[in-house]
Amino acid sequence: MTHARRERAALCELLDRLGPGAPTLCEGWTTEDLAAHLALRERRLDAAPGIAIPLLSGYTRSVQERLASRHPYSELVDLVRQGPPVWSPYRLPGLDELIGTVELFIHHEDVRRAQPGWAPRTLPADLQDLLWKRLRSGARLLLRRSPVGVVLHRTSDGRTNGEKTAGRRAEPAVVVSGEPAELTLFAFGRGEHAEVSYSGDAAAVDRLRRTRFSM
């Protein structure tokens, strides 16, 4: 089973257990909203661009609201559990793993870490490696709005301790350290709930911690 499928299955199990109305880390969204978002992403390709393009976000929001109103919560979760339909490009071999792993991981943590008593999971080493690979290729884009330089420092184990990648080249630079999973959450705007540490000029660290990044 791929990492994307494992994260999808675990997320859906958690959504089933919590039910609709439970909080998530996505501002203003409950578990029902998040399930509708994931169903839209894979089944309404006409509305999916508005997830990332502000100009189209109004249409995306209206489609998501209609999905939530037309489907009971349990059906929304089942749509997510089923994965992309047969006609979706996400069903192409390897594409769900390439594109879906990071998003499903993040949204799984959006639900987990919004609940009381959460604790970080122990993730497989190859999943940490995959997340780090994605960060190395995407960190500059994700952190382009940072008001200061950013260096991501992987601290997962002795084999990789000290490995770094540039998020944004500028001075002063702040080094953000943590495991790849935690750095991924930081880079996708979940810094307040990520177990990372910061080092560098105190004012620069403060500016970075107050900056909100998004997907």
From TrEMBL:
It holds the Pfam family MDMPI_N. Residues 3-81 form the Mycothiol-dependent maleylpyruvate isomerase metal-binding domain. InterPro entries: CHP03085 (IPR017519), DinB/YfiT-like (IPR034660), Maleyloyr_isom (IPR017517), MDMPI_metal-binding (IPR024344). It comes from the Bacteria. This is TIGR03085 family metal-binding protein. It comes from Sphaerimonospora cavernae.
